[in-house]
Amino acid sequence: MNFNRIITAFLSAFILLSGTTAIADTTTIHGYLPGGENHEIRLLTISDRISFYEVVLDRAMIDSSGKFSFSLDLKETMVAFLDMDYYSVSIYLEPSVNYKIISDSVPFDNLYRPYTKKERLPCTITSDKKPELNKLISEFNLIYNNFIEENFQQIYAKRRRYLIYNFADSMKVRYDSIENEFFQNYITYKIAGIELAGAPTQRARLFTKYLKDKPVLYNHPEYMFFFNQFFNQYITSVSKSAKVNDLKYTVNYLADYPALLDSMGKDTLLRNEVIRELVMLKELKDIYYSGNYYHKNIIKMLKDISENDVFPEHRLIAENIIKVLTKLNPGTDAPDFVLPDIVGDTVKFSSFFGKPVYLGFLTTWSYACLGEMKILKDVYEKYKNKVNFVMVSLDEDPDIVRKLVKEKGYGWPFLYNGDGYDVLRAYGVKTFPLFVLINSEGKISEYPAPKPSENIESALERLTTPHK
Prior knowledge:
Blueprint: H1 3-17, E1 25-32, E2 40-46, E3 54-61, E4 67-74, E5 78-84, E6 87-93, E7 98-103, E8 119-120, E9 123-127, H2 133-157, H3 162-175, H4 181-198, H5 203-210, H6 221-230, H7 234-238, H8 244-254, H9 257-264, H10 273-287, H11 295-308, H12 312-326, E10 338-340, E11 346-348, E12 357-362, H13 367-383, E13 388-393, H14 398-408, E14 414-416, H15 422-426, E15 434-438, E16 444-446, H16 456-464
Parallel strand pairs: 1-7, 6-8, 12-13, 13-14
Antiparallel strand pairs: 1-4, 2-3, 2-5, 5-6, 7-9, 10-11, 12-15, 15-16
């Protein structure tokens, strides 16, 4: 990157990021969740809204009376998620505000509910700040949804954009007295999304109205939703100035991100260094799975950005994208963990390395899991001297697993995870059964691997047959 670009980048950062720095203040959350006693509850957030990499802010055990609490230092308003087992709820948190969350009683019985389809935790959220941001957003969302439902055909079929402008004016009048910048931006960019969907060919006008010379709100969900929609497949499908061939050449042959930035600068909407880099990061992430670009070059460029870019936000985003794109890829290290087996002995997963490992995640209350275990019994007998078979139980009661193993005569190790979060997160377990094939060196071979019912023997044969 030349000297002029560095100066431009610093000036752009100063203009667009000014006003976002604040002194951290303590925010507290006190909750009551009957039915969740002795379960872990976590406070999660999205690290950035390009990679959507999830991070854990805090975690706590719900005590025997159903109470829990969190405390964290915030520099700016953010959206977080209370997460536990099959339940989740979003909460907007402001610096130096105290929150109370009271939930209805929730069941935690063993029902087949995939982790991807979490139910909303039924609860009320209050705080000591008035007006309460969560209540404001909930109220506005209801009004917004009703507006879209009533005017969908008029806006999107008949292109009557004046309805959007009238709605924006009415919201300005309704909420003009609310001195909350986060909430005002929430309204602005929620409405911007309607405008974009209703007038996708008017990007230059919308760019000037909502993005040009405006602060980049990296952590604002509605700003970033609008940004991602506005620049969706921008280089590959939308821009008439930044060419796809330039993108392919720069990525596949140069693997050089300053050169890609220069190429993208041909587009008048990407003159600003900060926005251009953010679009570049999004583009690199989106083209990874297209099949037209070299993965190793994309990762190299992202690594260069994560280490050398002048914008700290972009370094973090690049680092997060690498984590998302490479997680559990073939050749990466299989995440290690320590769990008890069903008799209570502590087992380190990496102790099974040295042979290929067929790792499975299951529950005894899923008929699909039980069916796969039945088939696996024959596979185990055939390959038990060449492959280590390890199953991780997600049941809450280890006695049920012990009973099943004894009744069915399963000879491979069963480890007990229960409702533990970390192993599930490390292996991306969203539903079950899930199987992973790991080579003798502890590297991911296939993720997800074929189930026993999907001819896993072919994969095991390839992995255990010596290469000539």
